[in-house]
Amino acid sequence: MPYYRHHVFFCVNRRQDGRACCANQHSQEMRDYAKERIKTLGLAGKGGVRVNNAGCMDRCEEGPVMVIYPEGTWYTYVDKEDIDEIIEQHLQRGLSVERLKMKE
């Protein structure tokens, strides 16, 4: 059994050159929300879910971006409701949220 059942990475990259970046789309706020929500639901920790910041994952133009491992499922999101749906469907029920999945 892996140490974490799911490892969630949020791109929080901020580009200084004016190009699109996840930080401009409130990715740090959404990451912080997801981390707190996962703790509140009792999903955090060994055998559960770990949420981390990530630097640029080179998809900022499609962002904001998050990826969940071990599945390697990439998502984009708009608001806390989208984050809640990803937590409920993917992390709790094991189902992909098709409407938020990014193309491979």
How would you describe this structure to a colleague?
By secondary structure, the chain is an alpha+beta fold. The protein has a single domain, classed as Glutaredoxin (3-Layer(aba) Sandwich). It is 26% helix and 20% strand. The protein contains 2 helices and 4 strands, in the order E-H-E-E-E-H. Strands 2-1-3-4 form a 4-stranded mixed beta sheet, covered by helices on one side. The radius of gyration is 13 Å and the shape is globular. The mean pLDDT is 94.
Strand order, biggest sheet? 2-1-3-4
What is the H/E order?
EHEEEH
CATH superfamily: Glutaredoxin
**Which structural class best describes the helix and strand composition?**
alpha+beta
- What's the helix count? 2
Based on Cα principal axes, name the global outline. Answer: globular
CATH topology heading? Glutaredoxin
Level-2 CATH architecture:
3-Layer(aba) Sandwich
Cα Rg = 13 Å
- End-to-end distance: 27 Å
Mean pLDDT: 94
Number of domains: 1
The CATH C-level name is: Alpha Beta
Largest sheet: 4 strands, mixed
DSSP helix fraction: 25-40%
Poorly predicted parts = none
SS elements, strand count: 4
Strand content: 15-25%
